[in-house]
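Before a colleague's protein record goes any further, I have to sign it off. What it holds is a sequence and that sequence's fold in C-alpha cell form. My question to you is simply how this chain folds and whether the C-alpha cells agree. Thanks in advance; the entry in question is below:
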Amino acid sequence: MAHFQVGTKIDMETVAHAGHAELELGGSKVRLLNSANKRQWRHLLAVVATGLALASPISISAARAQTCGTEYTIKEGETLGQIAARVYGDPSQWTVIFYSNQDRLGSNSSLLVPGLSIRLPCIGGRRARQSSPARPATTAPTTPPPPTTATATGQFLISSLVRRIEFLTADGYPPYTGRSLEKGGMLTELLSASMDLVKKEARGRLDYGVSWVNDWAAHLNPLLLTRAFDVGFPWDKPDCSRRGELSRGARFRCERFFFSDPIFEVVTVLYVRQDSRIKTLTTGDIDGAAICRPIGYSVYDFDQNGRNWLKDNKIILIRPNTVEECFRLLANGTADGVAIAELVGQSTIRSLRIDKQVRSVQPPVALTPLHVVVSKTHPHARTMLYYINTAVAKLRKSGAYDRIVDRHLTRYWEAQATPDPNLASKPAKGGAAAPKPPAARPEPANAGKPKRAASPSSVPNATAGTGTPAPATKK
C-alpha cells in the first residue's frame, strides 16, 4: 500500500495511480479503498487534500448546525474531510459520506458542487446532539408499548428498542441480488418477505430498508463496522473454527462479524476458456494460473480442503471491480479462470455472448452457504439476527420460501434459453404492431445507503429505498 503525506507539493497523478493508498492529511489518514476510476479519484483527492491542507474556515454556527442523520448543503470551498471532521470528529470518516451519496456524487465530474445536498449518515448508532428547543410536554403516554411476548403459535418477540433495520447489498450478482431483477433478486425478496412477517406483527413498531452500494469492498469496512448500515447480504462464512489457517481477510470477518443462519447455498465453480489446459482443480493443472475474482469477494475457499492456492502461491489472483470484468479478462486471455457462483457466472457469460468460448471445470470449487452479516459491536446485533433467523425459518415452513426460489430460478433459466438463430435475419412483416413496453419506473431518490457491481469506467451509483427495492435499470 502506498503512503503519501500532504506537504507543500504533491503529485496527485501519482496518488491516483497508486491503487490502494493512504493519504496523510494533517495527522489524519484517509484510505483509498479502490482505484477503479482514476480520473474521479484524482478529483476527490485534489478536493480533500487541498481543502484539508488549507483548512478553509467554516463558521462556528454552521458547524454547530450540522448533525448526522440529516441533509446538508455543501458550501463553497468545503471538503468531505472537513464535513466529516465536524460531524464525526474524524476527517478520515469522509468515506462514509462518500459511499452514502454515490447517487449524488458519483455522476458529478467535480464530485463536490456548492449547493449540492448530501446525506450525513449517523455512524456507531449515534446522533449528534440537537440544539433545538425542548418540546412542550404532552398528555400522550411517554412509555413505549411493552414488547410482544412469544406464544405457542410462534409469534415474534418484538423489541422496544429496534425501530428500523437498514439492509445493505449490491448489484451484479444475478439471480440473487440486482435492482434490474424482479423484486431486487431472489435473496433480496426472500429477506424482504421474511422481514415483512416481522413488520406485520410489530404493528408499526418496526420498519426496514434495503440499500444498494456497488462496492463490496466497502461494505464490511467502513459501512457495516461504523453502523452506517445495520446488516449486509449476501456474504459467505469462513471456517472460523480454523482461524490459524485463514487469510487475514477471512480472520477479520470471523473476528468482527456475526453470521445469520444460511439463507441459500450456491455452487462455486471455476470457468475457463474452451482451449484451456486446466481440466481439473488438481495442483498440476492449476499451478501458475491467473484466477480472477472481484475485489470485495472472499477468497478463503481457495485454500480449503488442502488446496492452498493462495497460501502456497500456486495461483496469481486478479481482482477487478466486477464479475463482468473478470469474464472480459478471461475472454481476452489475461485471466486463465474465473471462480464464481455458478448461476452468476452463467448469467454473465450469456450477457457477454461468450458462452461458446467458456466452459466450467468439475468438480465445483466449493458449496457456499450465503448469510446476512452484522457487526459484533452493533448493540442490537443479536436482536436483528433473531428477527432474520426466525423469520426466514417461518418463511420456509409456510412454503413461501420455496415459491419465491422457484419463481426466480424459473425466470433465470428461461432467460438462458437459446434463441432461434434465424431470428437474426428474419424481417418483421404482417400482423399488428407489438404494444410499447411500459416506461421504466424511476429509482427512488430518498435517503439511505449506497452500492456494489460497479462499471469499470464510472464510480458506481447508489440508491436506497424502504422495504423491497423498486426495479431499476442496471448500471
Remarks:
- The longest helix spans residues 381-398.
